[in-house]
Write a structure and sequence with these properties.
This protein is an alpha/beta fold. It is 50% helix and 10% strand. It has eleven helices and six strands. It has a six-stranded parallel beta sheet, sandwiched between helices. Strand 4, helix 4 and strand 5 form a beta-alpha-beta unit. The longest helix has 29 residues. The termini are far apart.
Amino acid sequence: MNIKPTGELPQDLKEFLDEATDGFIYVSFGSYIDGKLLSQRFKTIFIQALRETNRRVVMRWSDTIEAAPHILTKSWWPQQNILAHPNCKLFITHGGFNSLMEAMSIGVPTLGLPFFSDQRRNVVWYREHGIGLQIDYEDETVSSMVEKINTIIRTPSFMENAKRIAELYQDEPRSRLDNAVYWVEYVIRHKGAHHLKPASVKIPYHQYLLLDVIAFFILIFCAIIYSGYYAIRKIALFLAGTEYKPEAKKQL
């Protein structure tokens, strides 16, 4: 529901992106992770890799970097509007949930740098669906990062998969906000909509967890084990030529 219709970009930013005929890269690690929090080693590698791509870059970055004509930095950008620009070829992201939703809804390939929580799972989701790759924070080099960036941009399947996911994401009879409003009003109209409640809300706890069924199968399993044990002992005694008596059992 947080996905809003895209709006107009500021004129100077629009011109910068429109002139990126080879496409541009958008970089943002969310509102909590800032460039100042990254290690100096990684920042050096990361900025150098962006320089070597020779593509225009728009970065949400408050830390100072050496000036470069094709890299535009600022502490805040209208992220959704930038991602929706037709020249956007890659989104370098931390993999936060909101960023995942925006990338899905618009259809932009990603290069993920997860830090904590659900970000790792989200970046794996990008990779498994063929719309992105992952940055290795500890072992990444300039050449490996440039290779990943170029691989995503130059391989059509990444953009194709991203657009396919966006098409699936957007294909619904009404917006998610309208859908949420409808069901809230539905419950109000029908005084709680108790007819939609599952039968599980009225059954005992042990039945809900199937504890009686589990206990029954455990009993059957124990009976089978005991019967097998008893049968094997009888066969062993028979083959040994002894009768099943306490003395024989003790000797065995």
